[in-house]
Automatic annotation (TrEMBL):
The gene is g.13176. This is TTF-type domain-containing protein. Transmembrane segments: none annotated. InterPro entries: DUF4371 (IPR025398), IFN-induced_PKR_regulator (IPR052958), RNaseH-like_sf (IPR012337), Znf_TTF (IPR006580). SUPFAM superfamilies: Ribonuclease H-like. Pfam families: DUF4371 (PF14291). Residues 122-211 form the TTF-type domain. It comes from the Eukaryota.
């Protein structure tokens, strides 16, 4: 969406600092502060080091700490790439204020693995410790293999210095690379008058940027300060309204949300955002009312562009805080999964799992979302590149990555060319773990290989869709519940989840609770002349079959056994040892059921028989057995109970045991690697 011509940016509400007047720098003597202390809690701070002490006074600057700046960890945007910024090939006149702040508050060095060029004649090269320890005002240019003085490079102008005739030398307009005389030259540069003035300008610039100091114009112009306060008071309710809509997941836009805001209710809806603004005005928000009545058409700050800017700013702030916590962690793991949004765009959701240790508090295991990434190519190569690129944009140290968690798709989990393999080629410590919840879901979905279970769940799904998709059928069902089960809290059937099998447990529980009402409602619909009557008749007949009754009770029994495990695996505080232990307990229960299949199934058969006797007035019957039948189970059994135990119950339990064992055995292999270090936790 294009910005309307003449409409200013949202940032115009905040005071933009004017150029610093160099004539205001006064009383500068020869005592330059040694090792100026910055905010020790921030790694991104601007320091002036090494040199004789110097006292000077500039209007608006703290006399006790004249050149001390605060830490800028809260200012540097997490996506700003210090290692991609090369001061040697950058035009300083094209920089905005945000980039200037980043330049001053970031140590401009290549990545740790960078090999600095060496002079062939003297075998010397640049030493990173000059920036990290001794002269933090330096910035290294990889393209030139030289260094610059950041304050002088940003703020030097012709005619600055003693007498106004001092011209810039190396470190200012030209990079310095005489490494033999480096430290000596750096110390001499610190004694230059123009360097001291530029340091003052840099200090003042940073203080103005953080709001700790007003610029000269603001100090002299009280009316301007008053206007800024009024503008902020006017835009605050707009921003808070956007916050409210975002927190409550309310859409902001309407069919007619352009133009000036009407203080009276419009004929056509203009969206919840504008309606809430009117409500604030009606409730007595005078600042907002004054802004709406007096602001020009191109400065209302209510357009979709402004809404998006506010939401994006919120995203940047949240991301910055998350990345700050992750950077302080000793290690982290990547969690990713592909999904599709409502517009049909395939995207990768990326989360970071790490241990956060707040000050003087117990460690907290966190899983923080860091963004959706649109995916056009689902190949493993592209997905791996996208993940690594996003981590690089967030300035994540991938050498700390010790784990990857994805689903079991071939492009993600492939051991030859999957995403996890490609990432481990660069970062070997990033061990891949197949998502435990996904493995459990695959285990339960394999139960569908038992024909009776598959047919049962299909009938349940069709019955639920019949009552949920047709108002007449739902009306009869509700009337039946009101008559025969008025105390029931569940009034509607739950759809069977297509992707997460464990979620079908609740659907089956509600289905069995209202099974009697379902049968009565289907019978009632069958007697009508509606278009759905034939479907209802088919489902009514299917729900009476012995195979269906036995299968649905088996599903309820097996799903209920795995439900606690599924809930545990989805808990972000769960860890591998507990997951393996919990899985082994479920396996032990399943094996116990298999060993006592006769007794266990007798209970299931009795429950199914009770449904059959009470609702249909007949006993459960095994289907007719033929000598040449090949399309379905055809064992030789002596009783109805034995038939269903052999054809349905035992195959279902065996499938669960086999899949749980196959899919979770790798966890024990991983734990065995830790057994020597932590025997008490790896057993």
């Amino acid at each position: 969406m294009k910005r309307r011509q003449g409409q200013p940016m949202i940032t115009s509400f905040f005071k933009k600092p004017k150029a610093y007047n160099l004539d205001d720098a006064a009383n500068v003597d020869k005592n330059f502060p040694n090792n100026s202390e910055c905010n020790e809690q921030s790694n991104l701070s601007f320091k002036v080091n090494s040199g004789p002490k110097m006292n000077f006074r500039v209007e608006g600057i703290d006399e006790e700490n004249p050149v001390t700046t605060t830490g800028f960890q809260e200012i540097v945007h997490p996506v700003w790439q210090a290692n991609r910024f090369d001061i040697g090939n950058t035009n300083r006149n094209s920089l905005d204020d945000t980039t200037k702040k980043n330049v001053l508050s970031t140590k401009l060095l290549p990545k740790e693995k960078y090999k600095f060029p060496t002079e062939k004649s003297h075998n010397r090269n640049f030493q990173p410790k000059w920036i990290t320890n001794d002269f933090t005002w330096l910035a290294y240019s990889a393209s030139e293999d030289s260094v610059y003085c950041k304050p002088c490079w940003l703020f030097f102008h012709e005619g600055v210095g003693k007498g106004g005739y001092q011209n810039p030398g190396k470190l200012v307009s030209v990079g310095f690379r005489d490494w033999k005389k480096a430290k000596e030259s750096f110390k001499k540069h610190m004694e230059k008058e123009y360097h001291k003035v530029c340091v003052l300008q840099a200090t003042s610039f940073l203080k103005i940027s953080t709001g700790k100091q007003l610029d000269i114009a603001s100090q002299l112009d009280s009316q301007r300060t008053k206007e800024i306060a009024e503008n902020r008071a006017a835009i605050e309710p707009i921003i808070r309204t956007i916050f409210f809509c975002a927190e409550q997941e309310l859409p902001l836009r309407g069919d007619h949300d352009s133009g000036a805001l009407s203080l009276t209710r419009p004929e056509k809806k203009d969206g919840k955002f504008r309606a809430l603004l009117r409500f604030r005005i009606e409730s007595g928000d005078k600042n907002l009312e004054k802004h709406v009545l007096n602001s020009s058409k191109n400065a209302t700050y209510m357009s979709p562009i402004i809404q998006n800017e506010v939401i994006q700013t919120c995203s940047d702030i949240v991301t910055e805080k998350v990345i700050d916590r992750i950077s302080n962690a000793e290690c982290f793991s990547l969690l990713g999964d592909e999904t599709m949004d409502v517009s049909g765009t395939e995207q990768l959701s990326l989360c970071i799992r790490y241990v956060d240790i707040p000050d003087l508090q117990a460690p907290v295991l966190r899983e923080d979302f860091v963004g959706f990434i649109p995916i056009n190519d689902q190949s493993s190569e592209n997905l791996a590149n996208v993940i690594l690129q996003r981590c690089d944009e967030l300035n994540l140290d991938m050498t700390k990555c010790v784990g990857q968690g994805y689903d079991g798709a071939a492009n993600m989990a492939g051991h030859l060319s999957g995403v996890q393999t490609r990432i481990r080629e660069n970062y070997p410590k990033a061990r891949y773990i197949h998502c435990a919840s996904h493995r459990l879901n695959l285990t339960l979905s394999n139960v569908m290989s038992v024909p009776a279970i598959r047919n049962c769940l299909r009938v349940v799904s069709q019955v639920v869709n019949l009552f949920r998709n047709h108002s007449n059928a739902n009306k009869i069902f509700q009337e039946t519940i009101q008559e025969h089960a008025p105390d029931s809290k569940k009034k509607r059937l739950l759809r069977l989840c297509d992707t997460r099998f464990i979620e079908r447990h609740d659907s089956i529980i509600v289905f069995l609770e209202h099974f009697e009402c379902i049968v009565m409602a289907l019978e009632e619909i069958t007697q009508r002349t509606w278009t759905i009557s034939s479907t209802a008749s088919t489902l009514h007949s299917a729900s009476q079959k012995s195979e269906f009754l036995v299968s649905i009770v088996i599903c309820e029994k097996s799903f209920s056994l795995n439900l606690p495990l599924s809930i545990f695996l989805q808990n972000k505080s769960s860890y591998l040892v507990s997951a393996v232990k919990y899985t082994n307990e479920v396996l032990s229960s399943l094996r116990q059921m298999r060993e006592t299949a006769n007794d266990t199934f007798t209970e299931i058969f009795q429950v199914a028989s009770k449904f059959s006797a009470n609702l249909f007035d007949y006993e459960l019957q095994a289907p007719r057995v033929t000598s040449r039948q090949k399309s379905s189970a055809n064992p030789q059994t002596t009783s109805n109970e034995e038939y269903f135990r052999v054809t349905t119950f035992i195959p279902c339990i065996d499938t669960l045991i086999q899949n749980l064992t196959d899919r979770f055995i790798k966890n024990e292999d991983i734990l065995s690697s830790f057994q020597l270090l932590l025997p008490g936790y790896a057993c």
